[in-house]
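Bumping my old thread because nobody answered last time. Still need a sequence for this structure:
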């Protein structure tokens, strides 16, 4: 095991992928806690499809993919948030409308740009080889921003997440914090698409919080557990991908799925044990 890890870190592309992925997993899990609790979890899936469309169009036009996708996805996140809050179009409808349209535009751009060097599979499912040193540095910088936001505005994010009406009544600018979370999620998704792919990046946002909620009930407990769980699952998934030559994104998601099933089984067993003990106590009385 130690020899395998040492061998992995001997390749520069693996170092870039592991460092970038670990920091992106940390960001996605922390942002995912608020997004899942606010029932905005599908926004990650929608933004990833929009990112795929932007990356495909940029590649077909011989433009910098990251330079095009990043502002497009950030604007889309703000637009989706505004549409959801306006009441004219429900949140899930807005996400479905924009994401499917973006995915169709991306596929069309790839099919029309056959003369250019476009790898559809790398955009859809991700690849370790696509993570550059600049991606790694951006991931570290983004993680620093997300951790600073959570540390500085923890109580306000907690208030906005659980009771937005009370937060507004208390003088907290709930709309601003929702916008901040959406923008950070958009940046996380764009950076993570190179590694995880457009179809799988949203799993880093959804799985860790949902898994942690099987056993933990407090906001802090879920946030800490999600961060640890996401980082551990990503590293295990990368190791599986390296040893079995499997896609990195799919390996990470499958490990997260296994963690979810494990936590669910533990929660179920603990619930049955508590119920059995309670039942025995009531019989004695």
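Sorry it took so long. Here it is:
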């Amino acid at each position: 095991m130690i020899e395998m890890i040492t061998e992995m870190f001997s390749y520069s592309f693996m170092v870039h992928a592991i460092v970038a992925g670990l920091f992106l997993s940390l960001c996605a899990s922390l942002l995912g806690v608020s997004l899942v609790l606010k029932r905005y979890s599908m926004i990650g899936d929608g933004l990833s499809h929009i990112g795929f469309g932007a990356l495909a169009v940029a590649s077909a036009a011989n433009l910098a993919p990251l330079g095009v996708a990043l502002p497009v996805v950030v604007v889309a996140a703000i637009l989706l948030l505004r549409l959801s809050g306006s009441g004219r179009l429900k949140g899930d409808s807005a996400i479905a409308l924009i994401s499917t349209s973006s995915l169709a535009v991306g596929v069309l751009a790839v099919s029309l740009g056959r003369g250019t060097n476009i790898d559809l599979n790398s955009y859809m499912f991700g690849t370790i080889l696509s993570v550059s040193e600049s991606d790694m540095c951006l991931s570290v910088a983004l993680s620093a921003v997300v951790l600073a936001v959570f540390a500085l505005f923890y109580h306000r994010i907690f208030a906005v997440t659980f009771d937005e009406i009370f937060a507004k009544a208390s003088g907290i600018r709930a709309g601003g914090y929702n916008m901040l979370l959406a923008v950070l999620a958009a940046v996380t998704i764009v950076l993570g698409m190179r590694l995880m792919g457009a179809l799988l990046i949203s799993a880093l946002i959804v799985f860790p919080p949902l898994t942690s909620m099987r056993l933990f009930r407090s906001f802090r407990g879920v946030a800490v557990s999600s961060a640890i769980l996401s980082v551990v699952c990503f590293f295990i998934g990368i190791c599986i991908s390296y040893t079995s030559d499997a896609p990195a994104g799919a390996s990470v998601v499958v490990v997260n799925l296994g963690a979810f099933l494990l936590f669910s089984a533990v929660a179920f067993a603990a619930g049955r044990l508590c119920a059995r003990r309670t039942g025995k106590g009531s019989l004695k009385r």
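The CA atoms of residues 17 and 131 lie 6 Å apart. Let me know if any region looks off to you.
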